[in-house]
Amino acid sequence: MSITSQIKYLHESLPSEVRLVAVSKFHPIEALREAYDAGQRIFGESRPQEMTTKQAALPADIEWHMIGHLQTNKVKMIAPYVALIHSVDSERLVAEIDRCAARVGRVIDILFEVHLAAEESKSGWNEAELRVFIDSGALVHYPNVRLRGLMTIGTLTDDIELNKSEFCALRDLYTELRPRFGEAFDTLSMGMTSDYREAIECGSNMVRIGSMIFGERVY
After folding, report:
1. CA distance linking residue 77 with residue 19, whole number of Å
2. Which backbone phi and psi does 173 adopt, to 5 degrees?
3. Which end of the chain has the least Cβ crowding within 10 Å, N or C?
4. What is d(CA 130, CA 9) in angstroms, rounded to the nearest whole number?
C-alpha cells in the first residue's frame, strides 16, 4: 500500500482525540513529502541533524517531534523549531532544553519518558525517580520548558497483555499527575505500529507510527 493510502487510512480510523506522529526517521524527504501531501502534519525524528535537514527542506507548517534519545549537546540544533520533545529522561536534559530555549526566545514543550518496559536497554525515568523530581518542585526553575505529559515505549514482545499492562500503568500515572500541572498537561504518547491499538485502548492520545506508513527503515 502507498504512503498516501496509509495516511488516509490512519486519519480516518484513529479516534478524533488521538494525534498521529508519522515516524519518518531514516526515510527520505520524498517520502515525507508524500505523507505531507496526504494531509499529515506531525513528523517524528530521532536524530537532530537528520531532522534539521528535513525541516529546512519541507513546508513550514510541519510540527517536528524529537522522539529518540536526545544528547544534551544536540539540543541547540533543534531548539529554534522543535514542537515537542518526547524523550526527556533526566533533569540534566530538562536544564539544557531550558537553557537553549531561553537563548532563542522560546518555551519548548516536553514529555517525560517513563521506563516501564521489561528491556533494561530502554531509556526513561523509573517511576520512583520521576516522583522524587516532581515532588521536589524543581520544574519551576526551568521557565522555558513546558511539561505537556508522559511518554513510554512498550516492551518489544508478542505478549499483548504485557504491553497493555505497561500502557495502563502509564495512564494511571498520567491521570494521577494531571491535576498538579493543569490543562497544559494533556498528552499521553504511547503506541507504535505493532501496539498502537492496545495503547489507544489504555488511553493514549498520541501514537507514533512509522513502518505501517513508510515501510521498513532505510539505514
Report:
1. 25
2. -65, -45
3. C
4. 37
Residue 211 scores a pLDDT above 70: yes
Pairwise CA distance, residues 115 & 152, whole Å: 6
Locate 164 and state its grid cell: 497493555
Beta strands in 32-140 (DSSP E): 42-45, 63-66, 84-88, 108-113
Please, what's the largest Cα pairwise distance for the chain? 50
Q: Tens digit of pLDDT for each residue in 50-85?
A: 999 999 999 999 999 999 999 999 999 999 999 999
pLDDT tens across 130-164, in order? Answer: 999 999 999 999 999 999 999 999 888 888 888 89
What rounded mean pLDDT belongs to the chain?
94
